[in-house]
């Protein structure tokens, strides 16, 4: 797989249409979705529930399931159109070249297998590491995500908290140093403080690994804080794309403006500018 340098597009999604097809009938879920992501960049897809952002993320990761299918467009990853590639090739990219973090973090684990064994299997599936080398790598990454490595390694998933499991999911997604991380609502099921810690950690590890991030979220405050560019989705369409500063200070589309107005304010309002109040302060 060809590695690109920082600033080059690693992912190009061109005119992507996803439909639900059942018994000869087709219903469009997304239509004419286009965006690109550059190495080292975070692009956020933001919109209300049902806008099509998670479906788009699943398409990029090659995880669409029936009745959903791609009926038009291209997904070009590192110069290769994944929609024209063998299913086995696309599957081989997941984990090694495309990491995934989803909101259902518990669903990422087999409940009756210890966490360490599952991490070792991920590593050995995609590399030639011996079991001893894979164990050392797994322990190192558990330490990097600020967990007690040995105890976490020996634990079953049900013995760990939601925040701990999400940290492990993040370690599993990044330890093979993918070129792209797809993060679909990664903190929705967590409390605010734990969620902030996970997002801080994801940003820190992004700088270490050098990957691009496709961040899916409905939380515009988090998006403005964490993203380089933002694409706003409504009813299966991208209605506006811009830098975070442009979206924050000069949104063009009425839907984007409505999302901004829906952001909750905080108690220090009297000390802040209107823009700072909308987004919870300078971040």
TrEMBL record:
<keyword id="KW-1003">Cell membrane</keyword>
<keyword id="KW-0472">Membrane</keyword>
<keyword id="KW-0813">Transport</keyword>
<protein>
    <recommendedName>
        <fullName>ABC transporter domain-containing protein</fullName>
    </recommendedName>
</protein>
<dbReference type="InterPro" id="IPR017871">
    <property type="entry name" value="ABC_transporter-like_CS"/>
</dbReference>
<keyword id="KW-0547">Nucleotide-binding</keyword>
<dbReference type="InterPro" id="IPR003439">
    <property type="entry name" value="ABC_transporter-like_ATP-bd"/>
</dbReference>
<dbReference type="InterPro" id="IPR050388">
    <property type="entry name" value="ABC_Ni/Peptide_Import"/>
</dbReference>
<dbReference type="Pfam" id="PF08352">
    <property type="entry name" value="oligo_HPY"/>
</dbReference>
<keyword id="KW-0997">Cell inner membrane</keyword>
<comment type="similarity">
    <text>Belongs to the ABC transporter superfamily.</text>
</comment>
<dbReference type="Pfam" id="PF00005">
    <property type="entry name" value="ABC_tran"/>
</dbReference>
<dbReference type="InterPro" id="IPR003593">
    <property type="entry name" value="AAA+_ATPase"/>
</dbReference>
<feature type="domain" description="ABC transporter">
    <location>
        <begin position="11"/>
        <end position="260"/>
    </location>
</feature>
<dbReference type="InterPro" id="IPR027417">
    <property type="entry name" value="P-loop_NTPase"/>
</dbReference>
<dbReference type="InterPro" id="IPR013563">
    <property type="entry name" value="Oligopep_ABC_C"/>
</dbReference>
<keyword id="KW-0067">ATP-binding</keyword>
<keyword id="KW-1278">Translocase</keyword>
